[in-house]
Each structure stands twice: as structure tokens, then as C-alpha cells.
Amino acid sequence: MAKFNFYPYELSCTRQGTWYFPKNSRRGLFFAYENWWAEYAPFPGINNLSINDFKSELETIDPASLGEMESCISNLPVNDEIKYTLSMATFFAWMKTHPEEFLKKRIKLSELIAGPTSEHLSMAHRAYGSGFGCLKIKINANVPTEADKIKRIRDLVGPNVSLRLDANRGFSLAQAVAFLHSLRKIKIDYFEEPLCNIHELKSLHETSGIPIALDESFLPDMPLERVGEWGAQVLVVKPSRFGSIFDLFKRVKRAKDLGIRVIFSPTFESEFSMCLHALAVVHLGLEADYHGAFYDGIFKTNVFSKPVRSARGWLNIDDVLYGLNQFDVKDLPHAPMAPAIDA
Asked: How confident is the model at residue 341 (pLDDT cuts 50, 70, 90)?
């Protein structure tokens, strides 16, 4: 029986990164077999398997028996996180033989405004100065304070920067209606996960006219028609939630047929996975929209010897291809394979 090779890593966080990883580092695991490479980097609240449990489950699989067939991975009787990483390994191998699909392309990036609310205005100022054309702003249910913050950000960045709001299901319907009414003169691209009660989303959209986006409320096994039934127009996708990336590709294409906008969003994996997500955006023809497919500034260390960086709110796919093709396990900031590695 053939075996995967495993390479644990640890990325030290910047101050911004500690908002998501309070232990000041981000741990993950690369695995490889021949020309297959992939990464598992669990994110709290999103992924269920610890790194050690993931490794134990993957060790029961013979990589030589998988081939590179999409259907083989989709039909494996394993956890969705295993399907996701195996399919990403296949996508990585396929990408290396089909670079012509991605050459000379680029995607537009949204910048995340999160962390301490007191810093949001300065973060928006830096993002605007760096050329970002879209800001995704985390908000809480303090209606007067948050409404004032959004107005100030809009005044700062002007009318041409797209503003997206994300409340992580923190508002009641009454709070959300009051909040959006106070912003009625400000253009909002969409409001992501505004309500604690998802069955009131349609009422909020009908009252405000603001597009609604689903993220954590939409479970991977739900039919896509549920998006419209709940009154939403946008689906935010974190790829590692949806099992095989090839099954996700089919769902995204179906969503487009239904008129649903699809936005890719990361769970702050390493550059390797974020670069593969950027290629997925191109592969699916979603470049016309802004995506949170890639974030700079979260980690002090990197898995690429030459870090991939965005420029003026854009990510050049040629840089992504170079980074992926130059990837070498020798460049990883290694971590010991021990119980402490669990995320």
C-alpha cells in the first residue's frame, strides 16, 4: 500500500493575524504523493477534524488507488474535509498541465475590515490608499455606532468603492431595518448574514432593497434553491466546507444558472491554498466580481520562498502560477507533529 508523505508547518501571525489565531500562529499540514500536493489547515468553527485526526484518517487511504478521477474522490466514504483536500491535490496536479487557462489573467480582491472596531476607519483608509476597490466590513449590532462608522468610511473612500457588510447573524430584524434605514443614502453592495433568524431575511430584503448574502447559514448539503427561498441573492463560499472542489465547481455553475452571485472567501489557509482558490475563481469565470480569495498581512512567515503579493487590489494569476510551480517542501516553516499541533 502506497503512503502519503506529511509535512506539518507553522506560520507566525502578524498583529492582524492574531485576531483570527489568538495563539499567535497558524498550524497546518501538507501531504504529498508523486505530483499531488495539498494542505489541510482547519479553521475554528468551520472545519471539524483536528490536524492529527485528519492525518490518521488519510493514512488509511492508498493514494495509488485513487487515480485522478473526480468521481473517485467524490464517492469516497470519507469526511468532507478529506474529499476537499484530495480534490485540491488533483486540481493542483491538473493546473500544472493546463497553465494556458490561467495565463495573463487577474482577479479583483476585496479587503477585509475586521478586528477592533476602533481601527476600522484607519484600516479602510489604508485599503483605499492601497488601491482596493471593495471593502468587506465586519459590523456588530450597535446600530448608531456602526451606522456612523459606515457613513464615515463611505465619506473617506468615495462613491466608487464597493462596500459589503457582514454581521455574522448578529442583528434582529428590527435592528437590521433601523440600521439599513439610517444608511439609505449610501450604496451597499450586499449585507452578509445580517440576521439571527434566517427566515426573516426575505422581509429584510423586501424592506430595504439591499441584496442579502448567505455564508454560514447555507449548509453544504442544502439545495441551491434555498438561497432564493430565504430571500438572498449572493452565496459566499468557503471552499473547504463543501467537500470535493469538483462538486463545488458544479454547484457554482448551477448557482450561476439560478442567478445567484458567488463570492469566494478564505479561511486564512497558507498562500498555497489561497492561490489554488484564486485559480478556481478564474476556472469558473468569476473574475468580474471582487473576491476574498487572497489576503496579505495575516502571517509573518510564508510557505513560498518568494511570497505572492497582491497589487493595487488585484492578484496577478501569473504570479500565482509562479508561486505554485516553485513550491518546495524545503521552504516550509516546519512544526513538530505532536498533539499540540491540533487547531
From this structure: very low
- Provide the pLDDT confidence category of residue 338 given band limits of 50, 70 and 90: very low
* Surface-to-core class of residue 227, CB atoms within 10 Å of its CB (0-12 exposed, 13-18 middle, 19+ buried): buried
- Whether 5-98+330-341 shares its CATH topology with 106-326 is answered no
Tallying the residues shown for the chain, one arrives at 343
The cell numbers describing 225, all together, are 434553491
Say whether pLDDT at 299 is over 70.
Answer: yes
CATH class, range 5-98+330-341: alpha beta
Q: Domain limits of the chain?
A: 5-98+330-341, 106-326
d(CA 80, CA 339): 22
Residue 194 grid coordinates: 445580517
| Residue pair 336/11 in contact by the 8 Å Cβ criterion | no
In the structure grid, which three cell numbers stand for residue 93, read together?
496536479
Average pLDDT of the residues in 94-110: 94
Rg over alpha carbons for the chain, rounded to the nearest Å, is 20
* Inter-residue contact 180 to 191 (CB < 8 Å): yes
Contact between residue 313 and residue 286 where contact means Cβ atoms under 8 Å apart: no
Record: fold of 106-326: TIM Barrel (3.20.20)
Strand order in the sheet with 212-214: 111-113, 134-138, 162-166, 190-192, 212-214, 234-237, 261-264
Mean pLDDT for 114-136 is 96
Query: How far apart, in whole angstroms, are the C-alpha atoms of residue 111 and residue 193?
Result: 18
